[in-house]
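Give me the 3D structure for Peroxisomal bifunctional enzyme.
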Amino acid sequence: MARYELVKRSVALITLTNPPVNALSSAVRHGIAKTMERALSDPKVTAVVICGENGRFCGGADIREFAGPLRGPPLVPLLDSIEAGEKPVVAAIEGVALGGGLELALFCHYRIAHFKARLGLPEVTLGILPAAGGTQRLPRLIGIPAALELITTGRHVSAQEALKLGIVDQVTEQNACEVAVEFALRAVAKPLSSRRLSSLTTPCPPNLDALLEAVTMQIQKKARGVMAPLACVQAVRAAATMPYSQGIKRESELMATLFNSGQARALQYCFFAERTAGKWTLPSGAQWNDIKPREIRSAAVIGLGTMGRGIAVSLARVGIPVIAVESDKKLLETGRQMVIGMLERDAKRRGVSASHNLLKFTLGLQDLKDVDLVIEAVFEDMALKKSVFRELSKVCRPATLFCTNTSGLDVDALAGVTDRPQLVIGMHFFSPAHVMKLLEVVCGPRSSSEIVATAMSLGKRMGKVSVAVGNCPGFVGNRMLKPYSDQATFLLEEGATPEQIDKALEDFGFAMGVFRMSDLAGLDVGWRVRKESGLTGPDVDPKNPPRRRQGRKYCPIPDMVCEQGRFGQKTGRGWYMYDKPGGTKAKPDPLIQNLIEMYRNRYGIQPRNITDQEIIERCLFALANEGFRILEDGIAARPEDIDVIYLFGYGFPRHRGGPMFYASMVGLQRVLERLEHYHQAHPDVPHLEPSPLLKKLVACGSPPVQKWREHIKTMHSHL
Ligand SMILES: CC(C)(COP(=O)(O)OP(=O)(O)OC[C@H]1O[C@@H](n2cnc3c(N)ncnc32)[C@H](O)[C@@H]1OP(=O)(O)O)[C@@H](O)C(=O)NCCC(=O)NCCSC(=O)/C=C/CCCCCCCCCCCCC(=O)O
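Predicted structure for Peroxisomal bifunctional enzyme (719 residues):
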């Protein structure tokens, strides 16, 4: 796990060998201890270079080991021996030096980085802190403000920025290992005392307290309820106010409080869930690592509304030529200007030049005859989408892949009107499509494994987190949203206010509560869907008892809000009021309170006191319950996929892990009992009836979320 060689007759070259990222597993730590001991005790050796195999220095501690009992040599004493030695030790950083990897480098006396390397202390994103001396050593090296920013955000820096900050001593375009060996030979005669970070005093800014206070407030505002960044601030304060050895003690005390916390477990789960999501398998047995995706050299986007514009930008900025299509001249010109503007702003932000030349705008589908892939993003209307796909079948060459950006319509029905159903798939982007990271890849029963592989790989190329899901109304994300938002409106009827419900959800960690989120998305969208499905509007059967539709409980308050022309932020009025149409600052609106009160009076509903606990349980357990049904139905292959969808598409707080992980943390038994309780109180709400899979998992002793798959695999998979 650590290879030892003698090079240039007097330099010990220690190579970490733990693919793919040379994580500091117990075996690697053993390897470092043994090889360092050998280097320090061999009189032939005058200097040491530490590097990583396969052009990657080190990705940090082995996160998988955090789940079990800690074994092997602890990191800090091991690294102390590197710094304390009398022979210069140089870190040759290629690829990445992250977390414990950078901390290892900070114990070395010198650091040489390849110009493409990335460095950082991302532990905070895993719910912990850099507890191998990082919080004490980085501030001594680069000062409190810069260290504080890197440690509390976990941001990676380029080699060039690391050089500017003073983290590395040299950046090279050559082989970093060879440069480091030469560097080490030159360092042999030089004194090491000033290179030992533990012996330095932290340069302290005069406004330390104000700085720490400002950063704390910023964190509390941005990451409400998240523990790790606040602990990082405390650890950095210790670097400024305590001697090194006491600072290290403080660092490890703070780490101990974080290490076993639910937040750390949730964040580490998210890290692996995101990687698991890319590993799709189809019922045919085809899977992510054996199907070659097609190369996409050109694409077309049909429809330049909000979604189409974002999709066109996402494609062009990764170098894919795009033909954008609209149905009339005026819409085309507006779309063109918007796309160019978005592309320019995006390029400016990224410090690159905008790729205008990759975009072509046209009114005619005939121009698409030679493209590799088409993404349809027209209005959410089945008849319109079908007519577009019929037309495309006539125009495009037989090998062109067809994708639809529908947010919930039947992908198989669309495939059915084409001449190539096996080459049709859903690519459900989230708005704004050039910003949001999530992509649901909706596999119809006839989608070929090649098109699944291509859509997943294209998503990755566009920087998206892509999740393969099956075809059903609303797919995964929007299907689950219904029980969640239904509970919120039922709670309004029963006595809560939009502000109270939103506050409970925001205190839980959502960036926005359900009502503020609906105002942002536009209330008219859901209203149209409800009208089309006969839940409201003139087509509703008058024989329906009030507040019941299709045999179940129905709350018409959202329809009443829309009937008043209140469509959310865009009209300046929705569940809240805004200072102007398009305004974003939500204020409670007495008119909404009146509307709800009148509604309660009309139906004789006596409002009751509703606790935040009930709001969280009803909204989130209903959400997870639908997740269990989705797993049963084989629409999502794994709970991780559902969680990733909610983390990246719906603002579910990452430190809670996603709805399914959250349910497992609360305890499946408890979730089951609470759902049974609420379902008894509301027997006409089927979403509150515990799903068979939840019951099955509880009967099996509530296994951890990673093991649920074993209980699902017998069920029918659409994936
Ligand atoms: C940028 C990357 C490194 C690479 O990205 P990419 O090329 O895109 O590849 P990926 O798909 O992401 O990864 C490839 C596979 O590698 C796996 N992987 C990656 N990193 C790790 C890792 N660090 N550990 C394990 N596995 C890793 C990944 O899952 C992929 O596997 P697979 O293909 O899915 O199977 C990118 O991967 C990346 O960003 N990685 C994470 C980097 C990171 O966050 N590093 C920090 C890790 S935490 C750390 O270093 C902490 C150090 C402090 C010291 C710790 C001391 C611990 C003891 C504490 C005791 C506490 C007190 C106890 C109290 C008590 O109980 O009493």
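The chain has a mean pLDDT of 96. Let me know if you want a second pass.
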